[in-house]
Write the structure tokens for this entry.
Amino acid sequence: VRVDATSGQLDLAKDGLTRAYDGNLNAATYLHRRGDESNPDISRKITAGSPAFLAPNAWHSPKPIELPVEAWRPDLQKFVQEGSILRSQAKVTQAEAHLKKIKLQKAAANEKQQAGSRNEKTASNPIPQKPADKPAFGGPFLVDDFSKSRPDLWEIIGNDWRYQGGLLSLTKPSINASWLRSKVTHPRDFELNLKFQTTGGQKWKSVGIRFDVDESGNNSHFVYTSVGGNKVHLAHTIEGKDIYTQAVAKRPIQLNQEYTLSLKVRGPLINVALDGEFLFAYNLPRRQPGAVQLLAYDATADFYSIGVRHLPAEKILKEASEKAKANLAKTPVITKAVVELAQAKLNLAEAEHAFTVARIAADNTAYRKTGNGSAENAGRRQLEANLAKARVDFLDSKKATKVATTIKKLEADLKAKKFPGYEPISVSTVSLLKTPNKDALPSSGGYPKTSSGRRAALANWLTHRNHPLTARVAVNHIWMRHFGTPLVETVSDFGLRAPRPLHQDLLDYLAVELIESGWDMKRLHRLILSSKSWQRSSSNLGADKKTLAADKNNDHYWRMNSRRMESQALRDSLLHLGGTLDLTRGGASVTPSPNVRRRSLYFFHSRDGRSKFMSTFDDADVFACYRRSESIVPQQALAMMNSQTATASAKQIAATFKPDMSPEAFIRDAFLKILARPPAEAELAESLSYLQDQPKREHFIHALINLNDFLVIR
């Protein structure tokens, strides 16, 4: 088993496609003594084949299959090549921006040194802007309630963000691997309010906000709450290193409790408050134009809203203490060595980008016969990248002595044209294997260029028209999901122990239809759904006594079977009736929660992470997919009466009706909407009487969704 990169994400640590492949074409299969794979009987080699009693004439020995080049060299896929070039180009752009910023900072430091104290005075007393050039006092700049994705406002990094239940959730804790960064630069003087709650994490459980975030993300200021540290703290990130200040307020921060973090920033001065309580003032070190960024360090969190506004000039801020002011001078010194290091990193990024382009060009020429790339040029570019990396390390005093020898050797190799061979781009890896059977391990030297053909032989045997099982098993499953009962009662066992099905002729007919149609399951669905059997009513009120006596259990399908909605259909129906079901197709899975509005199809489904509401109504088995059990227990009635899903849905459904409707019109429309039928006269009279005693219509809706006529498909 191997994991390949997917389009749009080349980092296998973040995403990947798992697939089976023939890793060792010479691997032998032996009979295991007493089932122990570490104890094979090498005298009894087993060859690929089918069971002798099961369609032996349909089996054909495997034949090797030549694989397309992208199968054994996944780095040659177009999206991998394009993504690799974009990734290396992005590093160049980032290094260029960093060097430019360093040079500007050095120039500004030189100017400040020459100007003396003049700049300090200007920072403390900024010159007011002209009214025509200044935005409206207190005007909104960035406002988001996180009710839906806003790609126009935010750049999203990480795969664990979920828009659900009218809020934004980070569902997995990480260390600076997931964040939202605004796409626009915030005002220099601003006020910010962030409403959130911390929902979990490992140790620190820190949640807050960054501001003044530069393009590289390596420089910013941030304020955060910490559950693990019981505090609100201000810190800076300078060249990727976090520097924690003495601006800290000890407060008990609780999990699953909403907080509003407020910042007011004017020039270097910042005021911080939590839930309206002032905590501290501080003078920041150097400021630069930047973005705001949601912060969650080792934490999961829910974000409810954020508002960034221009800070009115007339708003008075509290001054920082002398202790806080002293930290203003602690700014990094931009020396000549810092500039040289930034330039060396830019040279490295450019060399690595050139190597990426040359390597792809060489591969395309060698394997696709396109372009004019060469292995020699790719090797030269790789050597130049290695040399650029060594020159970056040389600027580190701890490595300089050792790296100097390496640089001389690389320069000599470059002059002598001794270019190294290059490895493919790493976009595929073999899954971790733990087995005492050495024959089961993949061979070295990359992926094989051919497949053994054993999996293709197995697939051809299973789908051969003479195979007696595959089509019958498929038909039985499809029939069961439409009628509630299978044609063969033992869904997971078609062997000799299974009783002969009552409708074997029907089973065989549908199996042949499936095979003859080229295994077109949509055609089989249409055939079943257009039949008179499926379209019959489930009611037995009009049945004659002879029919009831002869086939009380409906074994001959003279009527449709009544069947309770599956748990997923039940939950989705409640949300859909209330107009809150999110019908968006595709996307990542979501953690089950009463606040989530996505279809149940997209819920994580595992042994440890399941929806309590759906589990009550016989959720799908985590370990098998044969036949879902169906139970009738008191907890199901309690869930429909008291669960958040049911009570909230009743309110939402009631809100879809016009408030000025007459009681009778409301009752008739409610019956049609929820039960798909009009009320009987007795039901109408009883409902009118109920609404007179209990006018709240949401309670009436709550009663309707608890009826069997809603829960059961008839």
